[in-house]
Amino acid sequence: MEDSKTKNQRGQWASALGFVMAAAGAAVGLGNVWKFPYLASKFGGGTFLFAYIIMLLVLGLPILVTEIVLGRRGKLNPVGTYAKLSNGSKWWKFVGFVAVSVNFIVLSYYSVVGGWITNYMFKYITGGIKGDIPAYFGGFITNPITPLFWHALFMAATIFIVVKGISGGIEKASKIMMPALFILFLVLVARAVTLPGAMKGIAYYLTPDFSKLTGLTFLMAMGQIFFSLNIGAGCTMTYASYLSSDENIPKMSAIVPAMDFMAAFLAGMIVIPAVFAFGLDPAAGPPLLFITMPHVFSQMPLGALFGFLFFVLMLFAALTSSISMLEVNVSFLVDHFKKDRLKSAIWAGAIIFLVGIPSSLGQGVFSWFKIGGLDFLSAADFLASYIMMPFGAFMMCIFVSRRFGIDEAIKEATNNGKIDFRLKNVWAFLIKYVVPIIIILVFLSSTGIMKF
């Protein structure tokens, strides 16, 4: 049993809206902006959009219901939840530890990229990137000192929010940043769709061509949903552990993926019309954020202003995700070692910052160091995103369907029958049979074991 001190350190959401905003913030991150538009451009625009919506209903929604159910019933971090609901099984504690470790690893390099974003945001306050944009980006990330300063600043902001607690820090910050993020999305969409030549991009993005709809399109949509919603990382499970027992799980589980989809959709409405207008390539990853989009801003009226707004948007998206990842680690320390929140957040954040240093230096002075042909940042991303997260997601499906039990999960989701969960049988079928198969397909494809 938790003692009163630990309960006080854990905290609780002040409202259902706070949980929804925080959980959506955990899902909405850099992947929505630097990968979704690229995939939409590559796989048929509206065709990919159609496949994405189908997969969101089949994969994203059932997984979120499952994570929230387990988190609220367990009332602990992923390690504690799995241990508690499995009567102390060492195997399931290990599965929970994998989830905590994923957040530790991802945040170590996510903070590095968050630092790059923070630097660019301040750069646009003073007029934006002048001259050779690729050269500026290359020179910045290969510098051994400057990126570490921005990495530290981003991590310090993350720690500051988490230290304030669930309702006083994460909830308040999410209630500010998430609405602001969507307002910024709409402002930038309005600018992008009014660029000369943007209508071609809009038509491509919104018009599906079902003759080009293939299994590969669905597979790419599956993978994007998998990584966008942090499936198997335990962020939503941890956030759900702070929920009161009378909240409506089915309703909240529907809102979070809907908000994640809207963020991805609006990102596409910014990037695709803009790159069509200027004849650019919507490359995936850092080149889109730090080279392609600055090139767009350099060619439009008031480009410095819109560049600044874009990187403020990206900073909010990065922070809402980073605080969820740090909170998983803080929750683990508070629950298992009975440490207070302040010390837990500072120690966890400081260690994660140090672990992130090789990801920063690996872009420059340590670029010669490779792991399987990958620099340190890319290797850490591959381990966490393509190995550990699929493992965690697959085992979560097995746990809820074979160990915890579908009937118990439905009782939790419906508050013992007090809440109507009309699709409970559909959810049960998907989580037992369909979602595990999807996870295996995504794992085989993303790791290159099988080509589809």
Walk me through this protein's architecture:
The protein is mainly α and 452 residues long. The protein has a single domain, classed as Amino acid/polyamine transporter I (Up-down Bundle). It is built from 20 helices and no strands. Helix 2 crosses helix 16. The termini are far apart.
Summarize this entry quickly.
The chain has 452 residues and is mainly alpha-helical. The protein is built from 20 helices and no strands.
Order of helices and strands: HHHHHHHHHHHHHHHHHHHH
Shape field: globular
The first-to-last residue Cα distance is 48 Å
* Amount of helix: over 70%
CATH topology (fold) name: Amino acid/polyamine transporter I
The CATH superfamily bears the name Amino acid/polyamine transporter I
Top CATH class: Mainly Alpha
Determine the strand fraction and express it as a percent band.
under 5%
pLDDT < 50 runs, ≥5 residues = 1-6
Oligomer: single chain
CATH architecture: Up-down Bundle
How much is the radius of gyration in Å? Answer: 21 Å
- Total tally of structural domains: 1
Main sheet: strands, sense, barrel: none
> What is the tally of beta strands?
0
| Helix-strand makeup class | mainly alpha
